[in-house]
Structures are given as structure tokens and as C-alpha cells.
Amino acid sequence: MVKRTSFEGDACPIARSLESIGDWWSLLIIREALFGLRRFGEFQSKLGMAKNILSARLRSLVDHGILATAPASDGSAYQEYVLTPKGSGVFPILVALRQWSEAFDDRPEEIATILVDRENGRPVKKLELHAEDGRLLSQADTMVKVRPAPRRRSA
């Protein structure tokens, strides 16, 4: 298998995030962890992944601080995979991907689920990007600029 390019030291934050969560299996594992799956066998059964691929992806997610291992909650000798705060932070990314698919999929009627507010059962509002002053922003309203260099402390 060809080794892919590492984006770990890339200056672009999007490329850097892809180093941790950039393959589809990793995102699907995180999705299932958000739904409450914790055990290797649960992930394998739900996703239908080959065990060697699942093992490698779980190890990578642990190495990147997205999942952590913990003793099994039932006291058995097994370990479980739990989301870290960094892993839970992927939730809005998955919601954005879901909403993008719902808006642009060629066959949206085949999408089997909708994301709803647990409290009232109503669909979740589409994610929006807002300026610090509350204005709704589009891509045309944004730009990327060089981050200012950190200030040096004087002695």
C-alpha cells in the first residue's frame, strides 16, 4: 500500500485536521462513538469493517487524542473506546457533512434518518456561520489572512 502524505506539520488547519480525521472510516467510527458505541466488536458489527482496518483506525484515533481507552464499564477484561473532548468536538463537523448531504444528495429521499432535537423531536436548524457581531456570513463575506506573529515577552 502506498503511504499517504502527512499533513501533521502543514500550516493549513484544514489539512492538519485531515491528519486526524480525514478518512471515511475514522469519521464513521466517531459517528458511532457519538451514538454510544464503545467496544471493538460493536464498531466492527455496525460498520462491517475488516478487523485489521478497524484496529488501525481505532489506534490512530487514540494516538490523535480523539478516543481514549478505558476499562470496560461492565467490569470484564475488555477495554472500551470513549470519546475525549477533542473527539466530541467533531460533532459539528459531522452535522455539517450531514446537512450538506441532505441539501445536495442526488437521492435525498433515500436518506434514512433526520437529526432532531432530543428535547422536542423537531429537526435541527441548519448550521450557520456568524460574525462576532452576529451577522450571518457567506463564503463571499470571509477571507483567510496570515496570523500575526506572537508578541515577544520583554525581559
Automatic annotation (TrEMBL):
Membrane-spanning parts: none
Gene3D superfamilies, A to Z: Winged helix-like DNA-binding domain superfamily/Winged helix DNA-binding domain
SUPFAM superfamilies, A to Z: Winged helix' DNA-binding domain
One Pfam short name: HxlR
Keyword terms, alphabetized: DNA-binding, Transcription, Transcription regulation
Residue ranges of every copy of the HTH hxlR-type domain listed in the record: 12-109
PROSITE patterns: HTH_HXLR (PS51118)
Any one GO MF annotation of this record: DNA binding
Cited InterPro entries: HTH_HxlR (IPR002577), WH-like_DNA-bd_sf (IPR036388), WH_DNA-bd_sf (IPR036390)
Name of the molecule in the record: Helix-turn-helix transcriptional regulator
Organism: Bradyrhizobium betae
